[in-house]
C-alpha cells in the first residue's frame, strides 16, 4: 500500500515537472521551426494568438467543461471526441494518441495533431478562441517583440 502511495505522489511531481508555460516568443520560435508559419494558409501569428487564448501558453491546460461533455487538452486545447483518446468518451482519435500526451512540455505531438486538425474543412475555425479573438484581426502584436 505504501508503494502505491509513493508512486502516486511521485507521479504528481513528475507531471508537474513536465508542464511548461511558454512565452509567446518561445512558442513562435518552436512553431516556426516545425513549419507552422503559413501552414495550410495560416500565419505564425494566428497560431500564437490561438494558443494564447486557448491555454494562455500553458501545456498543462485542461478544460473539462464543454457543453457536449467533452474535454480539451494542452496548449492547443485538443478535444477528446475528435483528436485524442482519454477513455471518458468515444473518440475518433484522429491523431492516434492519448490526450494526456498533450499535457507535457514536449509539444511535438501537439503540433503534429494541429497540423492534422487544421486540414479539416473548418480550418482554424475549429478553435472557438481563434474565431473570437484572432480571426480577421491585426495580429502583428503577437510577434512584434520576437526575434524570429
Folded structure, characterized:
This protein has helices at 2-18, 24-33, 44-55, 108-117, 128-133, and strands spanning 62-63, 72-73, 78-79. Helices cover 37% and strands 4% of the residues. It contains 5 helices and 3 strands; from the N terminus they run αααβββαα. The model is unreliable at 1-16 (pLDDT under 50). Strands 1-2-3 form a 3-stranded antiparallel sheet. Strand 1 (62-63) and strand 2 (72-73) form a beta hairpin. It is globular and about 40 Å long. The protein has 148 residues and is mainly alpha-helical.
Features:
mainly alpha, globular, 3-stranded antiparallel beta sheet, 148 residues
Give the structure's gist in a few sentences.
With 148 residues, the chain is mainly alpha-helical.
Q: In angstroms, what separates the terminal alpha carbons?
A: 52 Å
Report mean pLDDT, rounded to a whole number: 90
Helix and strand pattern:
HHHEEEHH
- How would a textbook summarize the main sheet? 3 strands, antiparallel
Helix proportion of residues, in percent? 25-40%
- By DSSP (H or I, 4+ residues per run), the number of helices equals 5
Protein structure class: mainly alpha
| Radius of gyration using CA atoms only | 16 Å
Strand percentage: under 5%
Q: What best-fitting shape do the alpha-carbon axes yield?
A: globular
Strand order of the largest sheet: 1-2-3
Number of strands: 3
Weakly predicted, low-confidence segments: 1-16
